[in-house]
Amino acid sequence: MSSGGTRRRTASVPDSDPDGEPAVTLKKEIGLLSACGIVVGNIIGSGIFVSPKGVLENSGSVGLALIVWILTGIITAIGALCYAELGVTIPKSGGDYSYVNDIFGGLAGFLRLWIAVLVIYPTNQAVIALTFANYALQPLFPSCFPPERALGLLAAVCLLLLTWINCSSVRWATRVQDVFTTGKLLALGLIIIMGIVQICKGHFYWLEPEHAFHPLQPYDMGRIALAVLQGSFAYAGWNFLNYVTEELIDPYRNLPRAIFISIPLVTFVYVSANIAYVTAMSPQELLASNAVAVTFGEKLLGVMSWLMPISVALSTFGGVNGSLFTSSRLFFAGAREGHLPRLLAMIHVNRCTPIPALLITCISTLLMLCVSDIYTLINYVGFINYLFYGVTVAGQIVLRIREPDIYRPIKVSLAWPAVFLIFWAFLLIFSLYSEPVVCCIGLAIMLSGVPVYLFGIYWENKPKSFSSFVARLTHLGQKLCLVVYPGEDREDGNEDREEDG
Amino acid sequence: MNKEDEMKEVELNEMDQEKQPMTGETPTGTEKNGSVKVKVPEDAEVKFTGLSKEELMKVAGTAGWVRTRWALLVLFWLGWVGMLAGAIVIIVQAPRCKPIPEMHWWNEGPLYQISNLDAFSKNGLKGVEEKLDYLSQMKVKGLVLGPVHSVQADQSSALELTSINPDFGSESELTSLLDRAHRKGISIVLDLTPNYRGVSSWFNNAASVAEKLKKACVYWLNKGVDGIFLSDLNDIVNTYAWSSIQAIFNKTDGTPKKALMGTASSLSVDETSLLLNQSGVDLLLTKLPYPAGLSGRQATLMQRLCSGHQEASLGWGLGQTAGSQASRTPALPVKLYQTLLFALPGTPVFSAGDELGLKAGEAMWEDVNSTAEEERTAVRNFFKTLSDLKGKERSLLHGEYVNLHNSPTSLAFLRLWDQSERFMVAVNWGNDSISMTPTNDDLPAEARVRATTDIEKLAVDSKVKLEKLELGSKQAVLLSYPFPG
C-alpha cells in the first residue's frame, strides 16, 4: 500500500511539468479498506505472542484476562479518536511529540522527545532485536539457552541490515514492513484456527464461566493495572494513522470509520488468540511458559512445531524495521523544531532517506545491546511512555478551551477524552502504587532532559565558537552522508523532482 | 508503544516538500500565511548551519569525498559480514543442548500423600476434592490416596480391593475427584496395600492376594486412576505374580504412563538398592526417619541411592510409619526436611500436613491461635518457594548429584544440569554448629541464597562465601550460582 502510494505520487510529477504549473496536489488513493489494513497491520506485532503470560499473571484468572484484553481495546479506540482530532487540527509530523510541543510548550515537547530518542526507541529496538535472535535460534537450542554472544551478534546483524535497507530506499523499507506484516498475520491466523479446532474437539474447560473466573491467585487492583499496561503494549501503534490523513478519500468520514472497524477487529483477533492459547494449555502451563506461542505450537503442531518460533522471529524482525522507520521520522520532527541538531532532519540528495537519523538510531541501539540490564530499563520508560498518552489527550481538551474556533474537520465529544483520562489516571496511580521505585526512576530519566533543554535550546545567545563548531560538524555530516535539508527553497525542490522523474 | 507510531511519516514528509511551492505562491488561509512567516527564520538558520544542495554537490562530489563514502560503505559491510560470521561460528561451536530425560507427571513436582482421610477431612473423598485448589497452589503434581478399600483387619477373605469403604465415601465420589483433579493437572494414585488395618500388610502371605491385586489394578486404571501404591513392597515383589502385575503398568499402546509406586520399611542400603532393581517400580518411596532424626546411615543411604539409580525412580518422604501423625514431635525441624526433600534427586513425597509443619494432635483445618497461624503460613510459604524452584529449575528436576560433604550429622551436595543454574544444598541436623569447606571444580567463590531456615545469618538472596560455609544447629540452606561457562 505504501509503496503503491509512493509510486502514484511519483507519477504525478510529470503531469505538472508539461503544464508549467509548480503546484502539485496529493491524490487521494487510500480508501476505507486500505486505511483499516494500515492500522491492523501496524498494531499487531510480537506483543500478542509474548504478552498473554503477563496479562494472565497479573489479572489472576482466565476470564478477567480476556476482559482486560477487551477493555484495553476499547480504551485504545477512544485514544485513537482523540488523536484523530489532534491529527487534523495540528497537521504536523512527529505525532504526540508535535502535539505536546504545540499545546504545552517547548519544554514539555522536548522532554517527550528526550525520553523517546534517548531511551525508548533504542531500548525498544534492542529488545525486539534480541527477541528476534532468541526465537530465530530456538529451533537449534530447544531445551537450553543460546550463547549470549551469538544472540547479541545476531541482533546486531538484524539491526544493521535493516538500517541499510531503510537508508537505501523508502520503498524497500515499506516493502519489508508489508512482507513481515503478512507473516505475523499468518501466524496469528494459524493460532486462531487451531484454537477453533480445539474447541470443536471439546477442549474448552477453561472457557466455561465457572472455571474462567476462578482466581489463580487473589485479585489485586495494582496487579490488574499492570495487566492492562501489559495488554497496552500489544496494542502499540494505534496512533500513527494520523500521518496518512491527507491521503484518505473523504478523510473526515473514513478516519473515524477506519478506527471503529480496525481496533475492534484487532481486539477480536487478540481475544481469539488468547482463547486459543487456553484451549491448548492450562493457565498453569501458560504461566510456566516463557514463550506462549512456542509452547502452543509444541502442543498442537507436533513435528511442525518449529513453525512458531520462526513466525515470532519474523514478526520481531518486522518490528525492528517498523521502529527504525518511525524513530527516524521523529528525529526529523525534532530537528525541524530546533530541539535536535539540524543535521538529523536532513535527507539524502537522491534517495530522500533520513540517513543521519537512521545512523544515530542504529548506533544508540547497538550501545543498548551492550547494556546488561536492558529489560529493567525498558520497564522504567514504559511508564513514561504511557504517561505521555494521557498528556497528549489532555492537550486536546486544553486546545478546545484555548482555541475553540480553530478549524476542526473531525470533532469528537469531550466525553471521550474524559473517559480516556479517567482510565489513564487509574493506571498511573496503581502503577505508581505497585512499582513506585521503577516509576520514579523513569521520571528521573525524563527530567534529566531539563538541563539539556535549558542549555541547548533555551539559551539563545550561545558563543560563536559553539555555533561554528556545530556548523562544521553539520557540514562534515552532510558530506559524508550526502544529505541536505529538505525543501529549503523552491528552485532546489524543483530540481529534486526533475531528477527523480 | 511509540515504536510504530510514525510508520507513515515519510509520506507526510514528502507531502510537505511538495506543498512548499504551492504554499508560497497561492495563499489560501491565514494559517498558511502564518506558516510561511514561521518558515523564514528557519530558512535563515538553515543557511547558516547547513550546506545547500549546490554547495554540497560541489564539495561532496569531488573524488576525495566519493572515495571516503565508498570506504565507509565497504567498512560497514565488512563489519556486518564479520558479525554474521562470528554469530555463526559461535552457534556452530556451542555445545548442543543436553537431551532432557523422559519426564512423567510424577517427576515434575511433589507428591502429596493422604493416608488418613479422616484426619485430612471429615468428608472423606468429597473433602479431598474440596481441597484441590489448595493443593494446586502448592504445585502438587499427584495425590497418593488411601488405602480406602474395604477390608477387615487380618481377614483376607473380607478383602475387596475394588470396593470403597463407605467410611471414606463412594465410588462416584472418587470418580468426581478424579475428574476434577485431572482438570487441575493433578494425578491420583490409589494405595492398594491390602491389610492396612491389620498386623501384616500382606496377611503374611502375599501370594494369596496377588490375583485380587492384579484384577484391582486393571479395574482402577480403567476407571482413570493414574497409579497404584503398595506398602511393604518387598513382600509382594518376590511372588510369582509380580511380573504380571508389572505388565499391567508397562503397556505400550500409547496411553499416558501409569505409575506403579511402593515403599518398604527398615531396609538396609543394599536391600533398598536391590529392591529398586528387582521390583522395577516407577517410584520407590524411601522414608527418612523421625522422631529419632536423621543419622549417618540415612546420609549414606541417600548418597548411594542418588549416585546409583535413575533419579526418576526415587521418592523421598518423612516418617517411619506412613502418615502416622501421632509420631510427630514439636521439635521437628520441618523446614530442614522440606529443603532436603526438594533438593534430592527424585520426587519429594509429603504427608498431609507436612507443608504446614503440623504438630502432634493438631488437626489440619482447625482454627489455631494467631502465633501458630503465622508459623503455619511461614512454613507453607517456604514449602511453596521450594516447590516453585523444583518445578522450574532443570538442575533440581533432573540434574546430576555430586556429593560435597557428609558426616553423621550433616550433608552437602550439588545438583548440576547442562548450562543451567547450579544448586547446592547444605543440611545440618546435629545439635552443634558446623563449618564446611566444600571443594569441587564447579564451585565459584560465592553463591546466592535461594531458601534458608536461618533467615538471620543467611538471608534470602544474599551472597555467601563458599570457602567456609557455617551452618547452625538444625539448619539448612539452598544456594545457587550460574553455570561457570
Automatic annotation (TrEMBL), chain A:
Topology in the lipid bilayer: Multi-pass membrane protein
The keyword Membrane appears for this protein: yes
Any GO BP annotation: amino acid transmembrane transport
Location(s), subcellular: Basolateral cell membrane
Keyword annotations: Amino-acid transport, Antiport, Cell membrane, Disulfide bond, Membrane, Phosphoprotein, Transmembrane, Transmembrane helix, Transport
GO MF: antiporter activity; L-amino acid transmembrane transporter activity; neutral L-amino acid transmembrane transporter activity
Record's compositionally biased regions (Basic residues): 1-10
The organism's place on the tree of life at top rank: Eukaryota
Region (Disordered): 1-21
Keyword Zinc-finger: no
Any one cellular-component term (Gene Ontology): basolateral plasma membrane
Major place of residence: membrane
Catalytic activity: L-glutamine(in) + L-phenylalanine(out) = L-glutamine(out) + L-phenylalanine(in); 3,3'-diiodo-L-thyronine(out) = 3,3'-diiodo-L-thyronine(in); L-histidine(in) + L-phenylalanine(out) = L-histidine(out) + L-phenylalanine(in); L-valine(in) + L-phenylalanine(out) = L-valine(out) + L-phenylalanine(in)
Bilayer-crossing regions: 30-50, 62-83, 150-173, 185-204, 224-245, 257-280, 300-320, 383-401, 413-434, 440-459
Pfam families registered for this protein in UniProt: AA_permease_2
Family under the similarity heading: Belongs to the amino acid-polyamine-organocation (APC) superfamily. L-type amino acid transporter (LAT) (TC 2.A.3.8) family.
Record PANTHER family: AMINO ACID TRANSPORTER (PTHR11785), LARGE NEUTRAL AMINO ACIDS TRANSPORTER SMALL SUBUNIT 2 (PTHR11785:SF113)
Name of this chain's protein: Large neutral amino acids transporter small subunit 2
Gene: slc7a8b
TrEMBL record, chain B:
Stored SMART domains: Aamy
All copies of domain Glycosyl hydrolase family 13 catalytic, residue ranges: 113-390
Keywords carried by this UniProt record: Membrane, Transmembrane, Transmembrane helix
Annotated Gene Ontology cellular component terms: apical plasma membrane; basolateral plasma membrane
Transmembrane segments: 70-92
Any GO BP: regulation of syncytium formation by plasma membrane fusion
Ranges in coiled-coil conformation: none
Biased composition (Polar residues): 23-33
Bias (Basic and acidic residues) ranges: 1-19
The keyword Transmembrane is annotated on this UniProt entry: yes
Alphabetical list of InterPro entries matching this protein: GH, GH13_cat_dom, Glyco_hydro_b, SLC3A2, SLC3A2_N
Record-linked Pfam families: Alpha-amylase, SLC3A2_N
Region (Disordered): 1-35
SUPFAM superfamilies with a match to the protein in the record: (Trans)glycosidases
Protein name: Solute carrier family 3 member 2a
Organism in which the protein naturally occurs: Danio rerio
